[in-house]
Amino acid sequence: MKTPIATSTAPAAIGPYSQAMAAQGSRLLFCSGQIPLDPTTGTLVSGDIDLETRQVLKNLGAVLAAAGLGFDRVVRTTIYLTDLGDFQRVNAVYGEVFANEPPARTTIQVVALPKGARVEIDAIAVG
After folding, report:
1. CATH number reported for the structural domain that contains residue 118 in this entry
2. Distance from CA of residue 36 to its chain's centroid?
3. Which residues pair with 81 in a beta bridge?
4. What are the backbone dihedrals phi and psi of residue 89, each rounded to the nearest 5 degrees, phi first?
5. pLDDT grade, residue 48 (50/70/90)?
């Protein structure tokens, strides 16, 4: 009924969850939220919100690729920010990846994210 998706080119799960889960029969892929962790070192990429957002999207892209998909197959995302003041800069980087037919999206300000990250993005894609 479901198939976990995992790749070493994205950070390993830091809790009891899968990087993504494919729902059999529906062609949907549910990608867990990605934070700006370097998958090689396991350390948080920090300092510049643009750089952090690029790492998040790189990680998300790696999970999608592990399922044989790309950003063009994403139909829904959620962006979590610890400071909505970063919205414009995150939006600009996000727009580079989702330039054509961007997915439906929600952006939410949260109090905190895992490991002190400032941005997290999850996604739903269709295969």
Report:
1. 3.30.1330.40
2. 9
3. 109, 119
4. -70, -40
5. very high
